[in-house]
Amino acid sequence: METSKGQGQLFPNQVLSAGSSPHEGLTLSSELLQSWQKRIHDHQAGLFKGKPEMARQNSLFCSEDETVSDQLNPLKLTPLPLSFWRWPSSPHHGAAIYLVMDRPADLDTPLLLYVGETIAADRRWKGEHDCKAYLSAYAEALAGAGLTSQLSIRFWSDVPETTRARRQLEQKLIQYWLPPFNKETRARWSTPFTAEIN
Q1: Of the residues 36, 79, 136, 158, which has the fewest C-beta atoms closer than 10 A?
Q2: Per the domain annotation, does 10 fall within a domain?
Q3: What Cα–Cα distance (Å) separates residue 147 from each residue in 144, 160, 166?
């Protein structure tokens, strides 16, 4: 995989593993990946533990945060493998908010990587989706660094039927959790898995 001219500058002096050359592609070290995961964990851990005040210190949406945290607890949703869409029958149908998560072994809470919304939960993940490419690059980078991933997707069906209201809820959740694979928050985390794949 060829990288763009500036791509290696996301993490200067740490990106290429020992013995690799630019021609072998971009390899992220385990230390770099774990540091990236830890930064996200530091924001989200309090939210998973029901302590949203930890996130409110950095949020401009304090009054909305209380509503969002009361509405959704991702850990109470059933985790499904990312390949659930290949099953003969989907367990979810209709409008939903979906959450893509990982459970790094060295962290005490999961990481919420992506928040999305759909009118058709049984079909949304079947087609093209940028997040699928990011997750593939993420899992590949972890494996290349000797780390494991436990990726899952969870669906929340208690959402508005109208697209506009569902998208507003999605945006509130993105601002609250700050998932690194959503376009609104990628720059905050310097997410290296979302570069255009050739």
Answers
A1: 158
A2: no
A3: 7, 38, 35
Ordered per-residue pLDDT tens for the chain, 198 residues: 444 444 333 344 444 333 433 334 567 899 999 999 999 999 999 999 886 554 444 444 444 445 565 678 899 999 988 877 665 666 556 789 999 999 999 999 999 999 999 887 666 666 667 778 888 899 999 999 999 999 999 999 888 989 999 999 999 999 999 999 999 998 899 877 765 544
Structure tokens at 178: 């700050």
Distance from chain centroid for Cα 86: 21
| Tally of domains in the chain | 1
The residue count for the chain: 198
Residue 96 β-bridge partners: 118
pTM flag (> 0.85)? no
- Does any domain span residue 135? yes
Nearest-10 crossing angle of helices 62-71, 163-177: 110
Q: Is residue 138 part of a domain?
A: yes
Residue 1 domain-assigned? no
